[in-house]
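Student: Send me a single protein entry containing the residue sequence and its fold in token form, directly below this note:

Tutor:
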Amino acid sequence: MTGLISIGRLLAVHGFKGWVKCQIHEGIGVINLTPNDWIFLSIQNKPVPFQLEAIQFTSNTLWIMKLHWYDSDEAVKELLGRQLMLSQSLVPNPEEQLGLKALEGFKVFNGEDALGTLIDVDDRTSQELMVVETKDNQQVLIPFHEDFIE
């Protein structure tokens, strides 16, 4: 996913005409997106482009957006939970993003064996957990430890 940076995740359907709520990672900052701009969603561990039809910024961490050609709540339900990515050129100071969220999209290995792709970091518990999507599209939780980073 070269040139792209994870900024959040599609959270929930909003209304019934294809609008979707997006949870944006803390510290991303202000991003100026407009209708007809392109975003990327991670589908089967690959970035897939989607064109914005409309977007509303309710806060720095919550956006509501509508994608072209998705006109019902049923249509966008298949996209919920997907990682939301943008071109690094659209994100202010992407090199200053710190924390585990910046690792999203990287492959996770057990020795030489690829376990899957880091799709989220769950920091709601005392031990941060990596949410890893395996090759068979299953999600597993793995406790994070600094020794895991090479």
The beta strands are 4-14, 19-24, 38-43, 46-57, 62-67, 83-87, 107-110, 113-122, 129-133, 139-143.
